[in-house]
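Researcher: For the record, we're logging two predictions in this thread. I'll number them. Prediction 1 follows.
Model: Prediction 1, sequence and structure:
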Amino acid sequence: MFALLLLVPPLGSSRDVSQQPAPPELELVAVVPPTPALSAAIQLEVSRAPRGRGHLDLSADPGVDEVRVHVLLGAAATSPRWQVCRDLHISIDGSAQLARLRPAAVSMPGGVYDAVTTDLTILDVQAMARARSVRLELCGEELSLPGDASAHLVEFVERFYRLGEFQGPAQRAPTPLVIPLEDDGPEGVEPPTPA
């Protein structure tokens, strides 16, 4: 889990800190992003991993983004290897595509959790769920999906579409209050007339 740390004035403070260096009375506040609405973890066979397995983790929030699925591929390793890879090669029933990767390795006792992330569309995941054959290749290494992966992918896709279903029109927003921005000067004083 990631958090963003912000320096903010204490509650009830009216001090304008935008033009001044951070005074000591500012508080450090952690802002934790919301947990994705939907996630799934599928175990992969990874030959070089100490235990011979890794994970394909999917996460999405169809209420916020009705297309994107975030993907993390990771496995315990003695040293990072996947960090130099630029693309994940995906073959779905013989149809090949590339997904651009971002490194995401994390050090841990005795080695590293070698990981990369990418984004797919829900249509990509749906195609993987329906496919007879799915191959993933990362840095020349084939990652094998287990036999029950299709069932997990089907469940993920179904839940994605249920969460993203149209719930009817949004409530009508209130009419905004419009306040003129011109300054007439002090009360009772007429502005100068142009010459």
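Researcher: Logged. Prediction 2.
Model: Prediction 2, sequence and structure:
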Amino acid sequence: MTSRVAIHSVSIALLALMSAQPAMAEFAMLVASAESSSVDAKAADTSAASKEASADPAAPAAPQCVLNGVSVGFFAIGETGFCGTVHGQVMEFLGKDFATSDVGFVTQRLPSLRSAPGGLTLETAAPILFYYNKDVSYQTFGLYPGTDSMVNFLTFRETDLGTLSTFVNARLVGRLERDSYGQYFSFSQIDGSAWMGAADQAWVQLAGLRVGIQPSLFGFSRVGYAVTPGYSSILTTPAISYTQRFDHIMGSPYSASLSISAEDPSRREYADGMLARYASPRAPDIVGQTRVGMPGILIHFSGVLHQIRDESADLCCNAPIVSTHGWAASVGGEVRWKWSQLIGDLGGDFYGKVMVSAAGGQGALGYLGIPFMGLDYVASSTGVIQRSPGESLIVSYEHLWMPTLKSSLTFSWFQTYLQSAPETILPWAPPLGFETSVRGSRLQASLETMPAPGLTLGLESAYTWSDANGQYNNLPAAPVVVGFPNLVAYIKKAF
């Protein structure tokens, strides 16, 4: 396991930037139309606007490219009946990580001397986890440049069964990394493939049914208003999902959606291969989501059932493969307002918005949006599974000073707890077990300006705290506490 939030900032940043621009667009549409599903689902659900346009007897034979009442930016794709739009973003950033040390982890299975027919035998069996203060100065020396580029293509048309839409978002994310051998430019990868890492989204949707690589239903679509957000669970994954929307319930400004999905669990695994190792095959994760929206407000609830099927105990100790389940749940909300509506003339033309998201679970830490500072579970040599509980929280506020200037303040926090079932190391000694708690928090402040349409300049500062505290056989070990600042300057160009 590794712990540095800074090391993981690239992957976290990619998730944030993936959702930053759509999230703002989604909220604007939410306020305008009181719809509550995500921006990509809104893009796919164009049936009402298209049918209204096609009902006009004066309308030409070519498709009416209207999305949520807006036609600007959409074009007809030949005579296929499809409409489309292309958007993208290029971002360059330069950062400095001031960390010199961090919490490091070592996992191992200890040799165990155990009684057996005919005498004693030496086996590799008992799980153990050690933590320590790790030197990372060689990784954080100097500045790190990076880049983030993406392009997405949306198409849609009406059919007798509803709106048929496709969406592809390709992105390239990379930054300069350093290790004990030197420095290199690292790109986002999935299963060791940069091509898979670039396939951020690729799905087909008919009415409410969507198939392909898509945002997980578990995560709240708001990740905080910083470029490198805190501990939020936003992830794209292969999935099959269905969403049923209820717009303007009983003529009110309230709207809601109910969604369910079967998602690939492999992108959520927190396992080290030693104390926890997932066996194949496994059932997909079942995720449910409910969202409620009204002008200026969005509320989110989600939950997941995650299968744990361990083979680490089988590989080390010939124990049977054991299956159980982990779970996680999240709740989030976002509110937007104009300050003059709350405090009168003192509010001027300032706008504000705040979001809060909390998640918790057991045996499914990958759904909490935390760094890789824990394991979903710890398996004993006999196959007993100790599921790891955890929680995460993010609170973020953004203040719009003027149409071209805004600032934000974000605080996020997490904790997780790992333990093993006590096991015999020596026949005459008490069984050995460990208990370790890991916590982290991050405070971020950012300032952004838009000197020209589509061009954004920004600066973000952050401070991260992490600590590990444990005990072995109820004997406390010395805690490790670290903290470090980070700075990132960036330029973004949207097209």
